[in-house]
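It is worth pausing here to work through a concrete case rather than discussing structure prediction in the abstract. The textbook approach is simple: state the sequence, then state the predicted structure, then interpret. We follow exactly that order.
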Amino acid sequence: MLNLTMCWRAGAALVSADTVDAAAASLRGFVRSVDAEEPVLTVITGTGQSDRWADGVTVVAIGAFGP
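Step two, the predicted structure:
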């Protein structure tokens, strides 16, 4: 029997590092309403540094994707 685990990603794209906290909170709320297994939460911002928070949210500065 084949056992498949569904993994999905929720993301928010932003232009301001000032709104990263609000975007992360919004994603966490969305995930609670969907009842998903192992979601990947990513916030993309136009400035700032890339980081992975203790709660699993990944913040990625757009510059990390390349020149």
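Step three, interpretation. Strands lie at 9-13, 40-45, 51-52, 58-61. The radius of gyration is 13 Å.
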